[in-house]
Write a structure and sequence with these properties.
The protein is an alpha/beta fold. It has six helices and 15 strands. A nine-stranded mixed β-sheet has the order 1-15-13-5-7-11-12-4-14. Strand 8 and strand 9 form a beta hairpin.
Length: 258
């Protein structure tokens, strides 16, 4: 118990801090767009059940409607066809231990300022490892791009005449992380874990296909990655226990040195 006691003491003393990596979730939260031939995910809608009134004189609560992959959210392996046949691949069946892991934060904000379609290549990962050590098994790899600073929904989604534009992972990078490094999954500041133009890649959406095809996870629409060190933080990313859920909005928290 001393480890847990020390953890609480370090949080109370300010030696450790809790960093919220989660975007606010509400009707203004932007959602990913798909071509019209595919079904679209709805945005968030809320309706008051009662608010200290005749429908409930002493309590306030709402109904909420949204897609599973809205706002800061978790992608389970079953979300993608490549991960549909794994056992324990849904939000209600994933082992809880797998929601917690060390954070490896790869900062490419300068590169993304120069190129909004920046793609992380294996050589970028190798260069990061030379500076910070090898990515450990069971880590969350978080791609810091500065994208969460785009508070205007149009700028955040960044859709142009040829589709969305945002940074992401090359297929070979996803393979390196999923297979060679055996990570828990990847996290991004953008609306999804693939690059904006990933629908045009060969194969399409390679990060989704590769990560979930190896029973790994995704975290999207993160923020405050600038408050984390490259290594040394722990991330807790537990989705709602939705029966047969392909994903879930969630509150992603990091414990980091102050």
């Amino acid at each position: 118990m001393s480890v847990l006691t020390d953890l609480v003491a370090a949080l109370d003393s300010g030696a450790l801090k809790v960093v919220d990596l989660t975007q606010p979730l509400g009707p203004e939260t932007p959602v990913i767009g798909l071509p019209p031939i595919f079904a679209a995910s709805p945005g968030v809608s809320m309706e008051v059940i009662s608010r200290y009134d005749d429908k409930g004189p002493a309590w306030y609560w709402n109904t909420i409607t949204m897609g599973e992959h809205t706002g800061t959210h978790f992608d389970a392996p079953v979300h993608w066809i490549s991960g549909k046949d794994y056992p324990n691949n849904r939000c209600d069946t994933i082992e809880p231990r797998r929601f917690i892991g060390p954070a490896c934060v790869i900062d490419v904000t300068d590169e993304v300022k120069k190129n909004e379609d920046f793609i992380l290549m294996p050589e970028h990962v190798v260069a990061w490892e030379k500076a910070h050590g090898k990515i450990p098994r069971g880590a969350w790899v978080l791609l810091r791009t500065g994208w969460s600073a785009r508070t205007d929904p149009a700028a955040f989604l960044n859709v142009k005449s040829d589709g969305a534009h945002s940074p992401g992972f090359h297929k070979t990078t996803s393979e390196l992380l999923a297979k060679d490094r055996d990570v828990l999954g990847v996290g991004v500041e953008t609306v999804g874990t693939d690059a904006g133009q990933a629908g045009t890649f060969d194969p399409p959406f390679p990060n989704h296909a590769t990560m979930h095809g190896n029973a790994k996870f995704g975290l999207a629409s993160l923020c405050n990655l600038d408050q984390l060190p490259p290594t040394g933080a722990i991330v807790i990313a537990a989705p709602l226990k939705i029966v047969d859920g392909s994903g879930s909005p969630l509150r992603v928290l990091a414990i980091a040195p102050a």
